[in-house]
Amino acid sequence: MVVLWFVKFATRNKLTKTPSRHKAARVLYKGAQIAMASLQPNQTLYVNNLNDRITKQDLKLALYAFFSTHGTVLDIVCLKTPKMRGQAHIVFRDILSATDALKAGQGVEMLGKPMRVAYARGVSDYIKKLEGTYVMPLPDRAMDDSDDEGGETDAPRGTKRSRDAEEEEE
Prior knowledge:
9 strands; Alpha-Beta Plaits; four-stranded antiparallel β-sheet; 25% helix
């Protein structure tokens, strides 16, 4: 049994569907104009379709070598987790450098695969720290305290008592 999925190809004027034998259907853009128009210019670039079979250090070095020619690169974040494999975020000092790098890097073959470059969705934590607007995220609470009935909430939980305290109670 052959299952056909449809891959959508977007151009400026029309959206067409063509059959594909891929497991998942995804939108492929012809040209960077559509991808660039959807996000606001930012100091951080999102790069995907990177080779995920090389080490993290080699990938960072290759990205730095390419993107540093277009402006000052402050930070490169690339993770090897299954969700972030083949993707990276490059933080530039200013928006003009990021825009120049976006235009120059779109579709360029890096380590055997053509890069897809777009502005990042949000502002990088590195930029927020430089501006002084960074706020540490609150840690998730493991247990819900709503079942406490007037008990002490500030008391530490799960701490061991010392032997001296046990002997005094007996």
